[in-house]
Amino acid sequence: MAVAFFDTEPFSRNKAIAFVFISAVLWSTNGLFIKIIDLGPLTIVGVRSAIAAAMMIALFNKNLRFNLSFPQVAGAVAYSVTIILFVTATKMTTAANVVFLHYTTPVFTALLGAWLLRERVSRFDWLIMSIVMGGIALFFLDEFTVGGLWGNIMAIISAVTFAFMILFLRLQKSGSTLETIIIGNLITAVVCSYSIIQDPPTAIDWLPLLYMGTIQIGLSFIMYCTAIKYLAALDAVLIQTIEPLLNPIWVFLVIGETPGMWALIGGGVVLCAVTARDVYQGRRNRKANQIA
Q1: Residue 16 and residue 163 in contact, taking contact as beta carbons nearer than 8 Å
Q2: So what's the pLDDT on residue 15?
């Protein structure tokens, strides 16, 4: 019954939009829960991934196809590295810094696609990349601790590794994104197992961890992977912009964390530049499809 709900034909555009919107809102709570759980980042990401993988397998076990191809495994490894870096960075610097820096993923995807998939990078992409790099530089003008500096660096690297994950997903001609996410979560749980043993969750930690594993990661990725097949890229991009906007708001409202002035300016530059690039690319793709 669960599979039927998520993948019923015909899948309307309104339902797809709702799924992506809900996914973006759930993702936006990531920073808040990472901040309020008093555990090390590896324990948080490891337990969360174990719960998410178990949920996905339980719901879709009869429909899963693990071919363990190079793109599937490489995409899973890239996913694992991404979420480990993202959670660790969020513990070290502000949630706003991490989510805005991570939002540069589409630009890195375009550049890496030129190398890995032999895709052409337009002059407009190079212009956007220059603007994004300028925005990133602004994050490092605020007063920061050594931990904050490394948190910013980890957030940027997580954007690059997530771009690799996206490219490896695209290399899977008939593969499913869900299998890659499941393998990535299993890898993460194994890699972080030592930290979980050394720094186990307490009774009070389990409720937010269960939310993160089942809802914030498990449900959101199931909904996103289902809906994205029925939604234009431009629509998905505009809806997903909700995540970097809401993420720092939740953290500010609950724990009062505020990013520095230069980080806010840099975040605004990154958000506007990446969104403009994706809107432009989405319109180009739509016109190309209409001509074809």
Answers
A1: no
A2: 82
- Angle formed at CA 110 by CA 216 and CA 282, multiple of 5 degrees: 75
Query: From residue 103, how far is each of 123, 132, 271 by CA, in Å?
Result: 21, 10, 7
pLDDT at 1: 43
Residues 105-164 have pLDDT tens digits of: 878 887 887 777 676 777 887 888 888 888 888 877 775 666 788 999 999 999 999 989
Tell me the torsion sign for CA atoms 66, 227, 275, 26. negative
Span 179-196, pLDDT tens digits: 989 999 999 999 999 999
**Phi-psi region for residue 65, left (φ > 0), alpha (ψ -120 to 50) or beta?**
beta
∠ CA 37-20-171, nearest 5°, is 95
- Extract the tokens encoding 227: 């809906």
Q: What residue spans define the domains of the chain? A: 15-291
Residue 278: CB atoms within 10 A of its CB come to 21
DSSP string, 175-215: --HHHHHHHHHHHHHHHTHHHHHHS---HHHHHHHHHIIII
